[in-house]
Design goal:
Blueprint lengths: L2 H31 L3 H16 L2 H12 L4 H9 L7 H25 L3 H9 L4 H9 L4 H16 L3 H7 L9 H10 L3 H24 L2 H8 L3
Helix pairs in contact: 1-5, 1-8, 1-10, 2-5, 3-9, 5-8, 5-9, 6-7, 8-11, 10-11
Length: about 220
């Protein structure tokens, strides 16, 4: 078991989830309550693109973008290091790749909030900021939970994106999924089995957590009663 790779993956998943909160909450709020429908369709399509786009395709274009001909040049001048084959590059790529998991879950939860409750809060003199935290947020906790765990685990299991952008540098860009690939490639099936089993059990636990806290689970069961 490559514990360094596991720690790097957990670190990447944690910071990706934090950044997705900062980016995903306002974006999901706008998609749910914004009035410009044409722009919402365009933005929603762009956000959802990683769901259908092959990871290697997205990784290739991010590699070009992060290189010397893209924003990588600006980043190199500002920070004195390359964005490609770095943890920062992995983080940006992971944010883009996992963005739809956070935004779609939050937007879906926001859209289920009764608009009358929001209007009542605003009519009582509450600001939109207070209305969000006092009305929308408490009623959207399941969306936040699903968005959090799915974004975290999706980042934890990334392979194509991290390999294209970060490569396979031990202690720097080698994540647990790449470590698993290296173990299989090196015919270390015992080590690969241990790594795969850890990821399998963790993924099962996450799915169990999501479904056990979802009201839709109980609704599906009631269909058979």
């Amino acid at each position: 078991m490559d514990w360094i790779a596991l720690w790097l993956s957990l670190k990447l998943s944690f910071w990706t989830t934090i950044c997705l909160y900062l980016l995903g909450i306002p974006l999901a709020y706008w998609l749910s309550f914004g009035k410009k429908r044409k722009w919402k369709i365009l933005v929603d399509s762009i956000v959802s693109l990683p769901l259908v786009l092959p990871p290697t395709v997205l990784g290739f274009y991010l590699l070009i973008l992060f290189g010397n001909s893209g924003i990588g040049t600006v980043y190199s001048k500002l920070f004195g290091k390359s964005l490609v084959f770095s943890f920062e590059g992995l983080l940006i790529a992971s944010i883009i790749y996992s963005l739809p998991f956070m935004v779609q879950n939050l937007a879906g939860a926001f859209s289920l909030v009764d608009s009358k409750l929001i209007e009542a809060s605003l009519c009582c003199g509450e600001s939109q900021w207070n209305t969000f935290f006092k009305v929308i947020f408490p009623l959207s906790l399941q969306g936040f939970l699903r968005g959090t765990v799915l974004s975290f685990t999706h980042t934890l299991g990334e392979f194509g994106i991290v390999l294209m952008v970060g490569g396979d540098i031990p202690g720097k860009t080698r994540t647990i999924s790449i470590a698993l690939y290296d173990q299989v490639e090196g015919l270390n099936y015992q080590g690969a089995n241990t790594t795969a089993l850890v990821l399998l059990l963790f993924s099962f636990f996450v799915l169990f957590l999501v479904y056990s806290t979802s009201n839709s689970q109980w609704k599906r069961k009631n269909l058979f009663i």
